Amino acid sequence: MDWDHVRSFLAVARKGQFLGGARLLRINQATVARRVSALEATLGTTLFERSTSGVILTDAGKRLLAHAERMESEMLQAEADVRGQDVQLSGQVRIGAPDGFATFFLMRALAGFLQRHPGIDIQIVPMPLPASLARREVDIAITLENPVAGRVVTRKLTDYSLGIFGARGYLKRHPKPAGVADLSGHRLIGYAESYAVSPALGYIADLFGGHRTAFECASAVGQVEAVRSGLGLGVLHHFISSGMSEVVAVLPERRAIRSYWLSLHEDVRAVARIRATVDHIATAVENNRARFLP
Predict the structure, then answer these.
(1) Are strands 188-191 and 140-143 parallel, antiparallel or unpaired?
(2) CB under 8 Å to 46, separation ≥6 — which residues?
(3) Is the pTM of this model over 0.70?
(4) CA–CA separation, 163 vs 64, rounded Å?
(5) What is the pLDDT of residue 235?
(6) What's the domain range around 32?
(7) CATH number of the domain within which 197 lies
(8) How many domains are there within the chain?
(9) What is the pLDDT of residue 32?
């Protein structure tokens, strides 16, 4: 079997459509379709049931998937053996991470790394679902919980803390609360919990003492901007607020502690560019631990 044909099959199987598979491989959709058709011709069977909304694996496709993933693992290990000692690392590394961590820490932390390794291309995607590593949608996953299933290698990056903050301008217009009961007199900014992808995001009710949130965002970045804009009081990560002189801690004794975990699939742990990226992220977090948990 042609490895390019198998790679295209894997991409389509993981994305559930030819267009998604093409985007994953960064090639033309027609090329992906042609490769899959060639693979089906080689095997003498149909691998996908096609429809206008996407594709579904046939029984033959399901059986091939397990073999194709083993082939992929062998190719990744071959790459690690051949290129593992290369000084000039190159290739794409896809990182799935929470938006607050990615925007306010990871972007800056990667600057020096990319200067040293200009051949590496980084792709940052939203916080991954648990199956993202297994489907190879990301190479590195930074999550709020420790993944316990699948063939993944996991390390705890750090604990981090969150607290209640308000913009200086907002607090000039509204009395600063002296206790949790006083929060009822403020517009409270929270996370849109119906969109929460992890139970670890359920800290709003605890910090606000059960008071109603009148403004909700489905992202940490949105919450930050809402607080900075003076819309009300909101929960921010301490490592984010530490770089913002325009916000002030409110009721500093109230804080929540959560954790960041880093995971990657066992099959890519030896790939040089991925290993180097993981080591750099872990070192950057360690060097900034006081920001995450002041």
Answers:
(1) unpaired
(2) 40, 58, 60, 61
(3) yes
(4) 50
(5) 95
(6) 3-83
(7) 3.40.190.290
(8) 2
(9) 96
